């Protein structure tokens, strides 16, 4: 019975730490550009990638106006914003992966930072 309680406590703490780690990393997924604050997610990355592709294939303008996180219209250069977003995405996800791998090696509650 004592082992089950200990195991449950360890699993609960590990899951809590994983959730905390996820929240910390997601808060870092934002970039400022031309006076706007943009939350970097798959939707934004996909949109910017498609606009860059279309601009190259069809000689379309690289400029666009999109709403930032506060619904303020911001004029952007899609290539520049894509580069910023891609850098932030890689930085945050690499850090998240490294911290998660470290967290996975913790086997005792006392080893997991509270």
Tally of individual helices: 3
Beta-strand content: 15-25%
Show unreliable segments. Answer: none
What series of H and E elements makes up the topology?
Answer: HEEHEEH
Distance between the termini: 25 Å
Strand and helix map with partners:
Elements lengths: L1 H26 L2 E4 L2 E4 L2 H17 L4 E5 L5 E5 H27 L10
Antiparallel strand pairs: 1-2, 3-4
Helix pairs in contact: 1-3, 2-3
Describe the structure.
Helix content is 61%, strand content 16%. It has a two-stranded antiparallel sheet. The chain has one domain (2-111). The radius of gyration is 20 Å and the shape is elongated. The chain has 3 helices and 4 strands; from the N terminus they run αββαββα. The protein starts with a helix and ends in a 10-residue tail after the last helix.
Can you summarize this structure?
With 114 residues, the protein is α+β, with helices and mostly antiparallel strands.
Features:
alpha+beta; 3 helices; 16% strand; two-stranded antiparallel sheet; 114 residues
């Amino acid at each position: 019975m004592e082992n089950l309680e200990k195991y449950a406590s360890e699993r609960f703490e590990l899951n809590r730490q994983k959730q905390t780690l996820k929240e910390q990393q997601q808060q870092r997924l934002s970039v400022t550009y031309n006076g706007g604050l943009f939350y970097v997610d798959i939707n934004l990355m996909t949109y910017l990638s498609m606009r860059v592709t279309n601009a190259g294939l069809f000689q379309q303008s690289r400029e666009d106006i999109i709403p930032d996180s506060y619904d303020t219209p911001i004029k952007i250069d899609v290539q520049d914003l894509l580069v910023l977003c891609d850098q932030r995405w890689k930085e945050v996800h690499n850090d998240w992966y490294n911290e998660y791998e470290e967290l996975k090696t913790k086997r005792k509650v006392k080893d997991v930072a509270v």
